[in-house]
Automatic annotation (TrEMBL):
Name of the protein: Short-chain dehydrogenase/reductase SDR
Domain Ketoreductase: 14-192
InterPro entries (alphabetical): KR_dom, NAD(P)-bd_dom_sf, SDR_fam
Keyword Nucleus: no
Organism encoding this protein: Oceanicola granulosus (strain ATCC BAA-861 / DSM 15982 / KCTC 12143 / HTCC2516)
Keywords on record: Oxidoreductase
CDD domains recorded: SDR_c
Keyword DNA damage among record annotations: no
Length: 257
């Protein structure tokens, strides 16, 4: 897909931190911010060294990759500390790391529940908490990547979907809590986005065709389709937007949430 057609001047030089920024939608967001001229740091559990080299060749800018587990809150906060030491106080936080593991609700253990909630919900709160400390008095944008799964009621996403519902509720609460400090908090709710992981593990051609046929825009969605909405929310172009959950699903759920 071509580069984003819009250029947001205020993102040039902005300090951006992304959780899960080395694969899937997160990697596309890292690339998108770099193309805007932002200074990007991201955390991921796996080794994303090859991606860092690749995106530097493509954009001429090298992101700061910090390997670590977002569910370990001290590690997560330390990663943001390191990002700020390299790039200055945060202007933008994108919480994106997630695990949409399919589960049988009769087989979920308390340990599995806690593990999935930690990556899909808890880390969003503690990343936002740390970012808000830097943004207080300066302003900034916090963007939580959620999902339409909790609106659809997908039966085998019975841990992931409730966590996503929590992210949407938390987004509204934190926006109210920090609005006086000019910190905007919003969520993006993607629909069926065809990442490599989704195509390898979960989705057949029949699944995709059936879903797309129910969208208002009957086109397949890819990670690149999430970049424009996230850049817009990160930029001061969306100055008056906070406490919102913006659905980017091709019109699948119709009336929104």
């Amino acid at each position: 897909m071509d580069k984003q057609p819009a250029k947001f001047a205020d993102l040039d030089g902005a300090s951006v931190f992304i959780t899960g920024g080395g694969s899937g939608i997160g990697a596309t967001l890292t690339r998108g911010f770099l193309e805007q001229g932002a200074k990007v740091a991201f955390i991921g559990r796996s080794d994303h060294g090859e991606f860092v080299d690749e995106v530097e060749r493509e954009t001429g800018k090298r992101p700061l990759f910090i390997q670590g587990d977002v569910t370990d809150t001290p590690v997560l906060h330390d990663a943001i500390d390191r990002a700020e030491a390299a790039h200055g106080p945060l202007d933008v936080l994108v919480s994106n790391a997630a695990n949409d593991q399919r589960t049988d609700p009769m087989e979920v253990t308390p340990e599995q529940w806690d593990e999935l909630v930690a990556v899909n919900f808890r880390h969003f709160f503690f990343a936002a908490q740390r970012a808000a400390r830097s943004m207080k008095g300066r302003g900034g944008s916090i963007i939580n990547m959620s999902s339409i799964s909790h609106v659809m009621g997908v039966p085998d996403l019975n841990v992931y979907a409730p966590a996503n519902a929590g992210v949407s509720g938390m987004t509204r609460s934190l926006a109210r809590a920090w609005g006086g400090d000019r910190i905007r908090v919003n969520a993006i709710l993607p629909g069926m986005v065809l990442t490599e992981k989704q195509l390898e593990k979960w989705l057949s051609e029949d699944d995709i065709d059936q879903h797309v046929s129910q969208q208002a825009l009957q086109e397949r969605l890819y990670p690149e389709d999430m970049v424009g909405p996230v850049l817009f929310l990160a930029s001061r172009a969306s100055h008056g937007i906070s406490a919102q959950s913006i659905v980017v699903d091709g019109g699948f759920i119709g009336g929104g949430i």
